[in-house]
Amino acid sequence: MHMQPETFSPKTVDAAYWSIPADTLLTGLEGRADGLSSEEAKARLAAFGDNAIHARRGSSAVAAFLRQFRSPLVLILIFAAGVSAVVGEGSEAAIIAVIVLASCILSFTQEHGASRAMEALTARIGRKALVLRDGRETPIPVEEVVPGDIVRLSAGNPSRPTASCWRRASSMSARRR
What we know:
Blueprint: H1 22-28, H2 38-48, H3 61-67, H4 72-86, H5 90-124, E1 128-133, E2 136-141, E3 151-152, H6 163-171
Antiparallel strand pairs: 1-2, 1-3
């Protein structure tokens, strides 16, 4: 029972998929109440691809630097430098140009550094999903979730509150005035 990518599409599932009875949804996705087998999940992963939104390739550093000059304030200052140069105030034009260039360089370095830090953090974070595979709950990378998987959803682990929750709870007291 191999699900073909052509047989399942968002068009085949009603827009109100949450209102479809579980049995009907499992049948439509060719799933089972005890979850998919590991072999079936591998086959579906090969057929459908990974469960990820692939980020488009970042723009080049040169394009990011040139984007800094599209700011309305920067454009006004460039215009003012041009007018100053035309009316014979070359020193004022040069000062304005240096300030604009320094501002754009500073903005570029901050944006570029933040972008690289975000890429590094995204690469380090491994997100997991808890799915039923081979009849038991198994943690897998979220990219390996396939159509027909039964995913266990939870709001976190309420049995271990953070230290900040304990501090807030212990510092609160009922006072009568």
